[in-house]
Amino acid sequence: MTARPALEIAVTSPAGARAARDEGADRVELCAALELGGLTPSAALVEAVAREGLSVQVLVRCRPGDFVYDAEEIALMAAEVRSVIASGAGGVVIGALTADGALDTAAVARLAEAARAPGRPVDITLHRAIDQSADPVAAAALLPSLGLTRVLTSGGAPTAAEGRETIAAMASAAAQVQVMAGGGVRLADIPALISAGASAVHLSAKTRAPARRGGRWVPLGAGGASAERDTHFVTDPGVVAEARRAVDGAAPFPPARPN
């Protein structure tokens, strides 16, 4: 028997989680500030999304920018991990690098330990920090020893489609870990990514929310966005439904990795 490829949708709200659930996603990754690449959401947001019924994997990232963290930032993220698990997360999405581009195994181990501290089963995903590492395949090979569940990766390339060969190598190097393709994933890319060895696919299925403002508009911050662009992203249920069909229609792969 072959394993069914999983579909994970990045969401920022309970409404996004409902859209993902209703259109067939297997789980969601919850974050705030998707426009910044994702940051740790509030405990209240985690609680609200957990009530929607899907497994919720919560991104823990204390700031935008690189993934090289100092001791204070790592301590903060360990506290955030404990907070989101207490708020109902089924898992956390974490990552850290050293200044020379290696996986920061000490930091990852500390964050993973914080996730497991309550004593209930949790998923632990290494996020796309691995794509900024000096050697994504070597970094992936370390994940089983750290007890991680899965890795989200574009194969070190700008998009997962471009990194397909590296994704295949990562799947071979870390056979006990679910390799999840993510990063600029288009619907047309999904069959090839699964054929390459990805046992899950991750996408945001996002669309820009229509502006609700009325009256005078004043730009906030230094970005200089227009009134039409100064908004946020929401989950497009139609894209989730199409992604589910694409995943289900892809060629199956050997059941070598946990889901």
List the SSEs and their pairings.
Elements: E1 6-11, H1 14-22, E2 27-30, H2 43-50, E3 55-59, H3 71-86, E4 91-94, H4 105-116, E5 123-126, H5 136-141, H6 143-146, E6 150-153, H7 164-173, E7 178-182, H8 190-195, E8 200-203, E9 206-208, E10 233-235, H9 237-249
Parallel strand pairs: 1-2, 1-8, 2-3, 3-4, 4-5, 5-6, 6-7, 7-8
Antiparallel strand pairs: 9-10
Helix pairs in contact: 1-2, 3-4
Radius of gyration, CA atoms, in whole angstroms: 18 Å
Question: β content, as a range?
Answer: 15-25%
Helix content: 25-40%
Beta strand count: 10
Organism: Streptomyces camponoticapitis
Keywords: Cytoplasm
InterPro entries: CutC-like, CutC-like_dom_sf
Family: Belongs to the CutC family.
How would you describe the overall organization of this protein?
- With 259 residues, the chain is an alpha/beta fold.
- The protein has one domain (6-249): TIM Barrel.
- Helix content is 32%, strand content 16%.
- The chain has nine helices and ten strands.
- The protein has helices spanning 14-22, 43-50, 71-86, 105-116, 136-141, 143-146, 164-173, 190-195, 237-249, and strands at residues 6-11, 27-30, 55-59, 91-94, 123-126, 150-153, 178-182, 200-203, 206-208, 233-235.
- Strands 1-2-3-4-5-6-7-8 form an eight-stranded parallel β-barrel, surrounded by six helices.
- α7 links the parallel β6 and β7 (178-182).
- α1 packs parallel to α2 (43-50).
- The longest helix has 16 residues, at 71-86.
- It is globular, with a radius of gyration of 18 Å.
- The model is unreliable at 255-259 (pLDDT under 50).
